[in-house]
Amino acid sequence: MGKSRSKRVSRRRPNNKETADPTEPQHGEEQQQQQEQQEQQPSVATDTDQQQIDTQLLNAQALFDRQHFQAAHYGEVPEEMLGYFKFVESKLDEQSFESAEDQRLFVDNVYAEVEGNELRLATNYSCSLVLEKLLKISDGFQLRVFMDKLSGCTIPLFAHRFASHVCQTLLTLAADVVDQEVSQGVSPTKNTKSEDGQGVLLTMQELVLEMCQDIKPMVGGLISQQFASHVVRTLLFILTGKRVDETGEDKGKLRTKKSFEYKSQKNAASIKMSQKQKKTLLVPRSFKDMFRTLTKELAVESDEAAIRSLSVHRVANPVIQLLLELQDDDESGRQAQTVLLDRLLWGIVTDVNPTDERKRDDRKSWFQTLIRDKVGSHLLEVIVKVAPDAVYDQLYKTYLAGNLEKFGLNPVSNFVIQQLISHARTPAQVEAMVSEMSAKSFAAMLKTGKPGVLRSLIDASVKLKSSEKKVVDRLAEAFGMSDVNQRKHFADCAIRLRTLENWTSLPEQEQNNLRNFHLQGSLILQGIMKMPEEQNSIVVNSYLSMKPAIALRWCYTPMGSRVVEAIIASNQVITKVKKKILRNLMGDYVSLAKDKFGSHIVENCWAVADIETKEKIARELVKHEYDLSEHHLGKCILWTCKIDLFKRRYEEWVEREKGMDRKKDMFKDILGDDVKMPKKRQYKSSY
């Protein structure tokens, strides 16, 4: 999503002076850097904007007051229990169990020992951390038993500073149990007899649905409560069958940086999705229905003023983003998404061109408020990504066309413009956007540190094959390279985001400093390399015009190596140019093979080299075979190049490499030019 990026309060021990910090959505690293540069500038919102935001926040507070609830309090944990839990934590940290059965027996004994105190433990600062560790090594049955113990207390636990973390971890683990139940054909009504003979234990599907029923009447208040909001987001992920990955792209959506770092310090490992795990999980139909029910509760049953108030509420806003993003791509999902969009944007779907001038002005004023608001702008980013084509076109033509530069230069709204451009639907829209952005606009973006807008234009023009020449020419002009002869410095200037005048005025020592490479500059160059040869030649020629020693140093840097990889791997670059680059690297393949960035370049060179060049590279590697075999990256390159086979059975190696080339040519004929090698490979080497 891009991404909702909300903060969550960490579980530091509370004291009399400490108050809970309000949660707040955050942009990625790029926005964080730019906002730091803007700290001393005056507020970007006008007085009218601020009045609108204040009004909506008051509405959100009124909604919270109507659905007011108390956080859980079940008494203090006895001293004996605290001491016992310290022992449990030490055992869990040591992980000294001899077998899986020993671990299961230990977990069973802990649950038996604390029976009846589950609620107290979940709401205790230190015990809640231990509970999370315990839950992560519990099996499906044990998780069901524990969740059953929390039955009927969902709302106060969700709203509790410590118990909310326990609930979030429990729900995340419950997703896999539900997946197993569905795959094994377990019915939601197929219960298990409890071990103590006191009744039946509900399936995990029923337990999750029961939890949803508990929060349904008060979901509007919960999503604006600083501790409960994150648990509700996790619940939405589970209902839609999306796996929670707390360390991947979902990291900012479900757990704050403070919370993540705190858990790491306390050795409470976050839930990480392995490469072998599927991203989606099986869920019963009842889960999809419940997700629609909760969406309806918020999007349809609530009045429009309440919905709009939540869209600028820093805690509730990410939940609204998820409701838009997680809808299924079917008729029901699109309908729910459309209804929510309509209510968020003042009837933009049902009343495209309102005759009522006041309504038209209110809608425009609300949009202007959202796009400049640090919270509301996140929601607009999601809206331009998921909106139906007609709504996207309406937003662009009515509110943004003619204002791309103005909003693109704003420290907040420029992120909305990036998403708008990146998700353009038609080539005509890209052409209109590029036509609006002159070379002076490009230069202004570079000067004010907003290169993300330019990168988005490049990506959109590549994706929809529109206005590629205009984009490159205006970018070159923005760098001060109106003359063709000046463009030999394009790669140097672009990767540093410096104009030609600025670049040439630097002393030679500073020009050779590769630490000034900029991530956005690297991405811009990589984007241009996806364009046809006529456009990407500005990057290729400027790279080849560098001194060989400088060009080689690019291969050892994270940003520079990506550009070199893009040049070598591009199907839009002629073979003659690639051969020249490979020839320039002769004598350096061994050192590149042992570098974490250079090794990727060696792999790319090998993938495009002809048999004659491969033999030259192989002979260079053979001379240093022992040195490479002792290196963790070098041995991978030896395996990729099949150096062992090259030494022992040269003719077989030649036939193998020729066969690989024939296969690549065959797939290129079938799939077109865009044939990519896998990013990660499993190496099995005898070295």
Automatic annotation (TrEMBL):
<dbReference type="Pfam" id="PF22493">
    <property type="entry name" value="PUF_NOP9"/>
</dbReference>
<protein>
    <recommendedName>
        <fullName>Nucleolar protein 9</fullName>
    </recommendedName>
</protein>
<dbReference type="InterPro" id="IPR016024">
    <property type="entry name" value="ARM-type_fold"/>
</dbReference>
<dbReference type="GO" id="GO:0030688">
    <property type="term" value="C:preribosome, small subunit precursor"/>
</dbReference>
<feature type="compositionally biased region" description="Basic and acidic residues">
    <location>
        <begin position="15"/>
        <end position="30"/>
    </location>
</feature>
<keyword id="KW-0677">Repeat</keyword>
<dbReference type="GO" id="GO:0003723">
    <property type="term" value="F:RNA binding"/>
</dbReference>
<dbReference type="GO" id="GO:0000056">
    <property type="term" value="P:ribosomal small subunit export from nucleus"/>
</dbReference>
<feature type="region of interest" description="Disordered">
    <location>
        <begin position="1"/>
        <end position="50"/>
    </location>
</feature>
<dbReference type="GO" id="GO:0005730">
    <property type="term" value="C:nucleolus"/>
</dbReference>
<dbReference type="InterPro" id="IPR011989">
    <property type="entry name" value="ARM-like"/>
</dbReference>
<dbReference type="GO" id="GO:0000472">
    <property type="term" value="P:endonucleolytic cleavage to generate mature 5'-end of SSU-rRNA from (SSU-rRNA, 5.8S rRNA, LSU-rRNA)"/>
</dbReference>
<dbReference type="GO" id="GO:0030686">
    <property type="term" value="C:90S preribosome"/>
</dbReference>
<feature type="compositionally biased region" description="Low complexity">
    <location>
        <begin position="31"/>
        <end position="50"/>
    </location>
</feature>
<feature type="compositionally biased region" description="Basic residues">
    <location>
        <begin position="1"/>
        <end position="14"/>
    </location>
</feature>
<dbReference type="GO" id="GO:0000480">
    <property type="term" value="P:endonucleolytic cleavage in 5'-ETS of tricistronic rRNA transcript (SSU-rRNA, 5.8S rRNA, LSU-rRNA)"/>
</dbReference>
<dbReference type="InterPro" id="IPR001313">
    <property type="entry name" value="Pumilio_RNA-bd_rpt"/>
</dbReference>
<feature type="repeat" description="Pumilio">
    <location>
        <begin position="584"/>
        <end position="619"/>
    </location>
</feature>
<dbReference type="InterPro" id="IPR040000">
    <property type="entry name" value="NOP9"/>
</dbReference>
<dbReference type="GO" id="GO:0000447">
    <property type="term" value="P:endonucleolytic cleavage in ITS1 to separate SSU-rRNA from 5.8S rRNA and LSU-rRNA from tricistronic rRNA transcript (SSU-rRNA, 5.8S rRNA, LSU-rRNA)"/>
</dbReference>
